Amino acid sequence: MGGDREPTCEPADNMFGGPSYRGGLSGRVSRIHPDGRRETVARGLASFVDGTNEVLGPSDIEWIGDTLYVLTEGGGCTRGLPHHPAGILRVGRNGSSRYVADITAFIRANPVAVEPACGPTGDCEPDGVPHSMVAVGPYLYVVETNHNSILRVNPGNGHIRRLHDLSVEDPAPIRIIRKGDHALVGTFDGDLLGMSLFGGPVSFLESGLNPVVDLVRFRSRLHLLETFTWADPWVGNAGRVLRRNGDGSWTEVASGLNYPIGLTRWRGDLYVSQNSYLQGPVRRKGEIVRIRDRDRH
Question: What average pLDDT does this structure show over 166-170?
Answer without folding.
Answer: 97
